[in-house]
Write a structure and sequence with these properties.
Order of helices and strands of chain A: HHEHEHEHEHHHHHHHHHH
Helix content of chain A: 55-70%
Domain ABC-2 type transporter transmembrane (chain A): 33-393
GO cellular component, one term (chain A): plasma membrane
Largest sheet of chain B: 6 strands, mixed
Oligomer: heterodimer
Radius of gyration of chain B: 22 Å
Number of domains of chain A: 2
Number of strands of chain A: 4
Membrane topology (chain A): Multi-pass membrane protein
CATH class of the largest domain in chain B: Alpha Beta
Number of strands of chain B: 14
Radius of gyration of chain A: 27 Å
Largest interface: A-B, 23 and 27 residues
Shape of chain B: globular
Order of helices and strands of chain B: EEEHEEHEHHHEHEHEEHEHEEHEH
Distance between the termini of chain B: 38 Å
Distance between the termini of chain A: 22 Å
Protein name (chain A): ABC-2 type transport system permease protein
InterPro entries (chain A): ABC-2_transporter_component, ABC2_TM
Number of helices of chain B: 11
Chain lengths: 401, 312
C-alpha cells in the first residue's frame, strides 16, 4: 500500500511539475528567466567589467609624508612586498594634503595616506599617532586598500604604544625606551594584508557582479512559481488538486520543484556563459556548483516563505521583489560588501547572498577547492531549512498544503 | 450497507468565531442529500472538511466507512468534488483540463482517454472538448467543472453550488445530468441557493444556519413541522420595511421578511383566513398589488426554521 502510494505520489509530483513547467514555457517566462536573462546579464557584465588578462585591479595610492621618519617609508616598503599587492599597488608622493586631495579628485591617485609631522616620533614615544585617508568615490577599491593599510598601521601603533608604556612602567628610562622596544620585537611595521577585508578586490569584477546578479535573480525566478501558486489558490485549482487522492503537500512540492529547477538552470547559465564566452574563472567547478545549489535551495525556501504569508499574487510579487533587493544590497550582490559600513558587513551574513558572495570570492580569488566553502554551503543550506520549515507551517495554515 | 458519508459533531473555529458548530448528518448509499443554507451559514466550510481540504477542530468524517482524518488519500478516492468556483485552467482545452486532473487521480493513460470521452459526452460537451475553456460560456464551464469530478467514477459526488451564474437552459441541463447520475446509484451531496433545485434533485435535506444544522429530514418531514402554516407572498407599492413591521404584530404571523423592494414573505397560521387582517395591517404603509397564498413547502420550512430567506 505504502509502495503504491509512494509511486502514485511521485507520479503526481511529475504531473504537477510537468504542468507547471509547460505553463512557464507557454507564457514564455521559463526561457526568459532561466536562459535569456542570465546569459544577457553575464554578457553585459563580461563586456563592461571583464574580458582582459589584467590583474583584478591596479591602484595608485598617494602618500603625503610630512613626518619624514622611518614609519611611513617602512609602511610603503612592506606593502609593496606583500604577495597580494605586489605589481598591483603603486605609491605616488605628494608634498602636502591639498596636492594629494587634488590628485585623488582628479583621478591621478585612487586614494592617499597622510602621515602628519612627528608621527614616527609620537609613536616611538608611546603617544600613538593619526594617519588620515583621502578617498574618491570613483576608485572604491583603492579606498578599500588604503583603509585596510591604515587599519593595519593602527594595530601596529597600538601595539607599539602599549609596549612603550609597559616599558616605561617597568622602569626603562625614557631616552632608552624606543631602542628597548625595537630590540624586543616591536621594530617597524610588519605590514600584511592577509585576512583583511579586501578579498572582493581580488576577484574579477565581471565574476563578482555577474554572480551577484545571478544570486539576486534566483529569487525572481522562484518568485514566478510563488505567484503561480497564489493564482492557483485564487482560481480554486489548488483546492481541486488538494482534493485529489494525494498527500496535501503534493501540489506545493511539485510546483516548488519547478521553481527550484528553473532557478538552478538560471544560475548555471550565468556561470557557464561567463566562463564560456569571456573565459572568466569562478573557481573550482564542484565548489561553485554546490554553492549555487545551496543558494537555490535557500532562495526557493525564502520565496516560498514569502508566498505562504501573501494573500494575493500581486502581494507575493511585491514581497519577493522587496526581499530580493534587500538581500542583494545587504549581501553584496549590488554593492560589494567591503564598500558597506562595518555594521552592515555583519548584517550581510544573515543573507544567503552574503555567504554565497564570500564563498565565490574564496573560490575565485584563492583557487581553493570545495572544502574551502563548506561553511558557506552549510550556513546557506541552514537558512534554507529554517525558511522552508516556516514556509511549510505557513502553507498549512494558509490552505496550500 | 455502509453509508456513503457520515459526519459527526463537526466543529471549525477561526479565532473566537465558531463557523461550523457540531454539524452532523449522513448520506446513505445512492441517496441524494441537499444542504440548504444562506450565505455564510457554513456550507462550504463543512464541505471543505468533508473532502479533506480543511481539518476539523472537533468531530469526524467517514466516507464509505473510511475516516478522512486517518486515511485521507483512500477517502478522497471515493469522492468527486465540484467546488463552487470554476476550478479550471482557462488557457487549456476541456480535454487537457480533464487529462491533467485525471492523471492526478491516478487514472491510467488508456482508461483516462476513454473516460474523458465519456464524461464530455455525459455533460454534453463532446463537440467542444478541444476548445479552450476560456472561450466557453458560463454554463459550459460549469458542466466541465462537474465533468472533472466524474472522471474517476466517484462513489460520492459533492456539488457545492453547481449552478451559480449559469443561464436557465444550462441549469436545466446540469440538473438533468445530476438526476441521471443519482438514478444510476451515485450518492450525492448538493448545496444550492436555489430551493427548487434541492427539491427536485434531493430526497433528504439538511438546513444549516449560523454553522448549525437546524433541521434534517425528507421534504415531507420538514414541511410537516410547519403544521397548518401557509406561506404568503405579498407585493405592494410603498414602504415594505414599515409594512413588514406592522404585519409582524398580526396574531398568527410567525415571520414577515422583506424579500425585495416591493415584496414581503410571511408565514401565517391559516393564511387564507387571515388575509383581511393582513391587508388591514398594511394600512397606509403602501398599496397591496398582489397576494399569493402558497401551500406549505420547503421555502416556508426554511423561513420557519431560520427566520430568513435562503438568499439573505
Amino acid at each position: 500500500m505504502a509502495k503504491t502510494l509512494g509511486k502514485s505520489t511521485l507520479s503526481a509530483l511529475l504531473v504537477v511539475g510537468g504542468h507547471e513547467l509547460r505553463s512557464r514555457l507557454r507564457d514564455g517566462t521559463a526561457p526568459l528567466i532561466a536562459l535569456v536573462a542570465p546569459i544577457l546579464l553575464a554578457t553585459m557584465f563580461g563586456l563592461a567589467l571583464g574580458g582582459d588578462d589584467d590583474p583584478p585591479f591596479k591602484a595608485t595610492i598617494g602618500v603625503v609624508d610630512l613626518d619624514g621618519g622611518e614609519f611611513p617609508a617602512s609602511v610603503q616598503r612592506e606593502a609593496l612586498n606583500t604577495d597580494e599587492l605586489k605589481g598591483v599597488l603603486t605609491f605616488r608622493q605628494y608634498p602636502d594634503e591639498a596636492a594629494a586631495r587634488g590628485a585623488v579628485d582628479g583621478g591621478e591617485s585612487g586614494a592617499a595616506l597622510v602621515f602628519p609631522a612627528g608621527f614616527s616620533e609620537s609613536v616611538g614615544a608611546g603617544r600613538g599617532g593619526q594617519v588620515s585617508v583621502l578617498e574618491s568615490p570613483e576608485s572604491p577599491l583603492a579606498g578599500v586598500v588604503a583603509r585596510s593599510m591604515v587599519d593595519r598601521i593602527s594595530a601596529l601603533v597600538e601595539a607599539r604604544t602599549l609596549a612603550v608604556r609597559a616599558s616605561l612602567e617597568a622602569g626603562v628610562p625614557a631616552d632608552r625606551v624606543q631602542l628597548f622596544v625595537e630590540e624586543n620585537g616591536a621594530a617597524g611595521p610588519a605590514l600584511s594584508l592577509v585576512g583583511d577585508p579586501v578579498s572582493g578586490g581580488k576577484v574579477d569584477l565581471a565574476v563578482h557582479y555577474g554572480a551577484g546578479m545571478a544570486v539576486m535573480f534566483a529569487f525572481f525566478v522562484v518568485g514566478t512559481t510563488a505567484r503561480s501558486l497564489l493564482v492557483e489558490r485564487q482560481n480554486g485549482t489548488l483546492d481541486r488538486m488538494r482534493a485529489a487522492p494525494l498527500p496535501l503537500w503534493t501540489a506545493l512540492m511539485g510546483k516548488s520543484a519547478v521553481g527550484f529547477g528553473l532557478a538552478l538552470v538560471s544560475m548555471c547559465a550565468t556561470w557557464l556563459s561567463s566562463v564560456l564566452i569571456f573565459g572568466a574563472s569562478w573557481g573550482d567547478p564542484l565548489g561553485v556548483f554546490l554553492l549555487l545549489l545551496a543558494h537555490v535551495f535557500a532562495a526557493t525556501a525564502i520565496v516560498m516563505l514569502v508566498a505562504s504569508r501573501a494573500k494575493t499574487d500581486a502581494q507575493a510579487d511585491g514581497y519577493t521583489l522587496g526581499v530580493a533587493f534587500v538581500f542583494a544590497f545587504l549581501g553584496g550582490s549590488i554593492v560589494p560588501v567591503y564598500n558597506l559600513p562595518e555594521w552592515l558587513r555583519s548584517v550581510s551574513l544573515i543573507t544567503p547572498n552574503g555567504w554565497v558572495s564570500a564563498g565565490l570570492s574564496e573560490l575565485a580569488g584563492t583557487g581553493a577547492g570545495p572544502s574551502a566553502v563548506l561553511v558557506p554551503i552549510a550556513v546557506v543550506t541552514g537558512i534554507g531549512v529554517v525558511a522552508g520549515t516556516l514556509a511549510l507551517l505557513g502553507f498549512r495554515k494558509g490552505r496550500f498544503a | 450497507m455502509t453509508p456513503a458519508l457520515v459526519c459527526e459533531r463537526l466543529v471549525k473555529r477561526y479565532g473566537d468565531k465558531t463557523v461550523v458548530d457540531r454539524v452532523g448528518f449522513h448520506i446513505d448509499e445512492g441517496e441524494a442529500y441537499g444542504l440548504l443554507g444562506p450565505n455564510g451559514a457554513g456550507k462550504t466550510t463543512t464541505i471543505s472538511m468533508l473532502v479533506g481540504l480543511l481539518r476539523p477542530d472537533e468531530g469526524s468524517v467517514r466516507v464509505g466507512g473510511i475516516d478522512v482524518d486517518e486515511d485521507p488519500v483512500a477517502a478522497k478516492r471515493l469522492i468527486g468534488y465540484v467546488p463552487q468556483e470554476i476550478a479550471l485552467y482557462p488557457e487549456l482545452t476541456a480535454r487537457e483540463n480533464l487529462r491533467y486532473f485525471g492523471r492526478l487521480h491516478g487514472l491510467p493513460r488508456r482508461e483516462l482517454a476513454s473516460r474523458i470521452g465519456e464524461v464530455l459526452d455525459l455533460v454534453g460537451l463532446s463537440g467542444r472538448g478541444d476548445d479552450k475553456v476560456g472561450t466557453y460560456s458560463g454554463g459550459m464551464k460549469r458542466r466541465t467543472n462537474i465533468a472533472v469530478a466524474l472522471l474517476h467514477r466517484p462513489r460520492l459526488l459533492i456539488l457545492d453550488e453547481p449552478t451559480v451564474g449559469v443561464d436557465p437552459q444550462s441549469r436545466v441541463a446540469i440538473l438533468d445530468r445530476v438526476e441521471a447520475l443519482v438514478g444510476e446509484g451515485m450518492s450525492l451531496l448538493y448545496t444550492s441557493h436555489y430551493m427548487e433545485e434541492v427539491e427536485r434533485v434531493c430526497t433528504r435535506v439538511g438546513i444549516i444556519d449560523q454553522g448549525r444544522v437546524v433541521a434534517d429530514g425528507s421534504k415531507r418531514e420538514l414541511v410537516a413541522e410547519l403544521g397548518g402554516t401557509d406561506r404568503v407572498e405579498l407585493t405592494l407599492d410603498g414602504d415594505v420595511t414599515a409594512a413588514a413591521e406592522k404585519l409582524r404584530t398580526v396574531e398568527g404571523v410567525s415571520e414577515a421578511v422583506v424579500t425585495g423592494s416591493s415584496s414581503i414573505r410571511l408565514l401565517v397560521a391559516g393564511g387564507r383566513h387571515l388575509l383581511p387582517a393582513l391587508l388591514s395591517a398594511v394600512g397606509d404603509t403602501g398599496a397591496v398589488t398582489g397576494v399569493e397564498v402558497v401551500e406549505p413547502d420547503l421555502e416556508a420550512a426554511f423561513l420557519h426554521l431560520t427566520g430568513s430567506t435562503l438568499r439573505d
